[in-house]
Amino acid sequence: MAWFSNSLLNVIFQRIWRGLFSTGRFITRIFFRYFGSGPPALQDENGVNASENVTLEEVVVVHSPCEVQEPVRVVTVSMPEFACQRPLADEEEDEEKYDEEEYRVSATDELYCEYDSTWETELSQEVLSGIKTVQRSTNFKLNIFLNAARDMQNYRHGYPFKTRGQHNPNSQEDMPNLNFYLGKTPSLPDGVYIGDFHTAWYGRYDSLEYVHTFIQWLFPLEEPGMNREARTLTKAEIERFLEEPIAKENLLKSYKLMLDFYGIELCNEETGQVRRASNWRDRFESLNRHTHNYLRITRILKCLGTLGYRHYQAPLVAFFLNETLVERELQNVKDSVLNYFVFSVLSRSERRKLIKFAYLNYDQKDKFVWCPQKIQAIWSTN
Fold it and tell me: Any long-range contacts for 124-133 (C-beta under 8 Å, 24+ apart)?
């Protein structure tokens, strides 16, 4: 396979990518240092141990469903809801709690975001289609969130805003992503079949890092990516995919492959519970360095929600929140977790719990922009 070769051209390509990402990180640090509101995201904020902010009345420590295998340390986010022990359909009680008047936010709230339906009744498609601009603020962190929120809401509502490059099928049988996952056709332009990805690519970290044409095939969405030869999902294709056990089984294998690449392992296929893998130190170091993976993880989370693994979203996001805010092992991932990962979670009740966990463990709470001030005041007083 051509993309596995150690040719001079491949080496040059890898070094160029490394140089570009290093330059990008340097520019980002300088920008945040002199123009951002608050400390750079890469810094250890005030050196305070975030775990001191945990309120045990609100956050209950539970045992992980994973079997502990020394010397791997099980990292369990201290919220039983993220173990997904109950069906998503049983959320009505939580929804009623958060639909009480005290949890309804006003557009006059300083941190109100018109693209975040977490705290209000979900907007109708008619209202949603009338929203075309993002509000602006002098708060740099808030503006970053506002722009991210528009993208994430578009995903959560089934893409009412069509994006450039979305695929319009010629017929109901035009389903390239499904055919790829059924093993009938290879990815393009690499020409790799799904079974080969799961065998030949597993543990090939350099290939997974520097080849950029596979992620759109492994985790297809209704929005385009960087690979112009990949195709976006269609509604009909999604319906067919959910009816195909082989396709869903292969998607689970793809998820495990990428988790291993990030130093994580799925230890409960029923609940979606994850923990650090035995290779986590080396892989976390790589994840902190290679920022393009944060876009990949966002894509993975979106794909899980679209293609039958919605209940896997919250456990993975909870893991990243714990590693960034409490364990502080993935500091460079923090902004992506808060702006994108959390808001990919389709369940409103789980999304709220994730945001609450983030707020309780965020050092500089006056810099927390990911939920309205009214909600923050409630959590602070409780």
Answer: 125/157, 125/160, 128/153, 128/157, 128/160, 129/160, 129/161
Long-range contacts of 168-172 (CB under 8 A, 24+ apart): 169/234, 169/236, 169/237, 172/236
pLDDT grade for 282, boundaries at 50, 70 and 90: very high
pLDDT of residue 105: 85
CA–CA distance, 259 with 210 (Å, rounded to integer): 16
Question: What are phi and psi for residue 275, nearest 5 degrees?
Answer: -150, 170
DSSP bridge pairs for 266: 274
The vertex-289 CA angle with 286 and 295, nearest 5°, equals: 95
**Distances in whole angstroms, Cα of residue 318 to Cα of each of 132, 150, 346, 356:** 31, 22, 14, 11
Cross-strand bridge partners of residue 276: 264
Does the N-terminal peptide bond of residue 220 adopt cis geometry, omega within 30 degrees of 0?
Answer: no
Summarised one tens digit per residue, pLDDT across range 20-30 is 544 554 454 44
Distance CA 107, CA 6 (A): 56
**pTM beyond 0.90, yes or no:** no
Q: Which residues pair with 275 in a beta bridge?
A: 265
Give per-residue pLDDT as tens, 60-72: 333 334 544 434 3
Decide: helix, strand or coil at residue 224: coil
Other Cβ atoms within 10 Å of 135 Cβ, number:
12
Task: Report cis status (omega within 30 of 0) of the bond before 245.
Answer: no
Neighbour tally for 26: CB within 10 Å:
10
DSSP character at residue 4: G
Given a contact cutoff of 8 angstroms between Cβ atoms, the answer to whether 362 and 379 are in contact is no
Short-list 341, 370, 369, CA closest to 139: 369
pLDDT computed for residue 233 by the predictor: 96
